[in-house]
Amino acid sequence: GDVGRFRINRKLKLTTAPDVKVLTKEDILKAVVGEEIDSGDKTNPYVVQRADGSYLIDGTLLIDEFKELFKIDTMSEDETGNYQTLAGFTINQMGKIPTAGQFFDWRNLRIEVVDMDGNRVDKLLISQRTPTEKK
User: Fold this and answer.
1) CB 121 within 8 A of CB 59
2) What is the tens place of the pLDDT at every residue in 99-111?
3) For residues 2 and 87, what is the distance between their CA atoms, to the nearest angstrom?
4) SS3 assignment, position 79
5) Which residues contact 124 (CB under 8 A, 6 or more apart)?
């Protein structure tokens, strides 16, 4: 037990250095693919607008950024809860930990869970609902 753990820890030698750079997903993709990757909106790496006008959004997007993106001024007490992110909002609205493929309609938006990472809402697809779509 302890001898193996010591050997692994000694080999890793995690230290902080002033010239350490935090790598983004784009940095890693650039290293693998060998070219610059366009990840959509440069101002927000958590949001990618698709050709059909829908948005693929990371669950960790802050709820304030979500409100800004979709021009939402206020949310009622029922819509606010003890969460800071779009994933938390989704769980709050659905009343449970969702599974991929589940969705709910909120205001003029359809919010669909497209990817889960265990119990964490990883990616959401948000699209504008047409007036003919029913809840």
Assistant:
1) yes
2) 999 999 999 999 9
3) 39
4) coil
5) 56, 57, 58, 59, 86, 87, 90, 111, 112, 113, 114
